[in-house]
Design goal:
The complex is a heterodimer of chains A (about 375) and B (about 90). Chain A is an alpha/beta fold and about 375 residues long. Chain A contains eleven helices and seven strands. In chain A, a hairpin with a 2-residue loop joins strand 1 and strand 2. The longest helix of chain B has 24 residues. Classes of the chains: A alpha/beta (about 375), B alpha+beta (about 90). Chains A and B meet through helix 1 and helix 11 of A and helix 1 and strand 4 of B.
Amino acid sequence: MADWTDYIGQLIFIIFFILIFTGVNQRVQMKIWSYDIRNKLNIIKSYVDDGRKRVATAMKKLGIREPDPIIMRYLDFFIISPVDIEPTDIIRRLDHLLTTREKVYKDSLARVLPGTGKYERSLLESSLEIIGALNFVYKVIRHYLLLGEKHNNWILIMQLEFMMPEIMRMVETYHKALDSFMTGRPVGDSAGALVAYRIMEKGKVVSKRLIDDTLVAEVRHMNRRIYVIKAEGPGSNVGKPGRVLARLVEELNGNIDLIITVDAALKLEGEENGEIAEGVGAAIGDPGPEKIAIERAASKYNIPLRAIAIKMGLKEALHTMRKEIFDAVERAVEYVEKLIEEHTSENSTVIVAGIGNSIGVAQ
Amino acid sequence: MNGIDYNLIVIIVLLTVTILFIQLLLETRRKPREPKTVTRTLLKCTACRETIETNYEPGDFIGLIKGQCKKCNSPLKVTAIYDVEIPEK
């Protein structure tokens, strides 16, 4: 008489055999993956709802009785990329679209919140953008999950399942970023703006003016004339540093000895937060128009264009500035001063552009 | 047969597979613990450069003049706002 372990062994073998040759194992695996993705999708949905509630509460505090229709309007707001099979003047077209989008957000909030200051409106604007991004991720994942289930496409579900940890990390980062953007605390991305602010603080400010939500300050420092460019703060704003820098170069007829751009840059895995790297080019992470404006202005007058990057992860860039990033800002200021000293002589004219969001950093 | 207890081997294999499966399940569900942080505001005296670190208050921003220096009565300026980790007890 066979022993019970023999029966178990044979049963396992038969089940294994049936699963392998009928493809049921893939179906089972697909169901497990779908279940897992659905759970994560529900978490993303809860983040979107939570963000909506928080923005609605903030709007109510500012006097809007019915904030939901306004939030809903911007939740699905989209921008259609310019035609790229005909690249002529694509930068101008892209710049026009981005500027229009920014204007739509700003004007609409100004219309519904007429008595509210620019600072509060900028925080709401950024918060709405964060919820919009979360909502977009939610919809795309739901689309691929439903599509995979509908067509029994286990390859699609598998790809989605393997991408989910990375997507969840990004989604959680965006969700937590709301804490900083709703309260106006400086984030890691403000590092460039903070470097610019520090240089203004260290030198003697001769003049200040605002162009396109961007500050241009003429500073006397290290026996040099330094033009500091940064987005207007302390609201959430990235300004138009490229456009303003190009305009300044034209105003000065190209009589500039050095241009330095400082920005927060996403680190590679294995790199430390707050590492500083030096290079050549325009350190700016915009979709194109601002960066090309800097490159064109520098190359037109043959002005050396240097870049300083303060490395950090996405989490560190979007969350409240960490102490190690603040320490890196201090080191970056010294780095900028070293570059100015090494590459220019006294009475030279230098432009230092602190790129990034100026949230929590005044001028 | 030959003194080998096959029942024992099957039980060991089944137990090992079960333990590994449970461990895998727990590992995928376990989230890495995020360190708790607190936002601090660094104030610096505009005259004597004395620095004071306080808890962040809504409305603080870098460049804000906030309060007076206890040493020399000069205005204090917010020079930094940053997150620091709270050490675990």
